[in-house]
Amino acid sequence: MMRIPNSGQINRLAEAQVLALEAYAERAGAALACAYSSSAEFDAALIAQRRAAGVYGPRRHRKQLLATVAAVAAALAVIVFLIA
User: Fold this and answer.
1) What single string gives the DSSP state of each residue in 24-68?
2) Dihedral sign from CA coordinates of 5, 9, 11, 16
3) Could you tell me which of 10, 29, 31, 33 has the C-alpha nearest to residue 21?
4) I want to staple 42 with a disulfide (CB 3.0 to 4.6 A). Which of 35, 36, 74, 81 is the partner?
């Protein structure tokens, strides 16, 4: 035989369901929260993370290397000029 709930039981059941729904809504809102305030900030963090992982390959400092070679060549030229 099926029991028909009284109004007190229905109210408690409805309150429990409302509380459960509120808890689920809070958890869903927390899951959608973003740690970045803009897409530019997200992109910068993503690029930094990929660089740290080595996705973009080694960093090459060609200008610095070229300047060092030019300075060494100039120093050698001065030394050769002073000796000769």
Assistant:
1) HHHHHHHHH--S-SSHHHHHHHHHHHHHHHTTT-----HHHHHHH
2) negative
3) 29
4) 36
DSSP label at residue 1: -
**Cα(79)–Cα(68) distance, integer angstroms:** 17
Burial 19-37 (b: 16+ CB within 10 A, else e): eeeeeeeeeeeeeeeeeee
Confidence of residue 3 (pLDDT cuts 50, 70, 90): low
Reported as a single tens digit per residue, the pLDDT across 10-53 is 778 888 888 888 888 887 766 666 777 788 898 999 999 988 88
Higher-pLDDT residue of 6, 78:
78
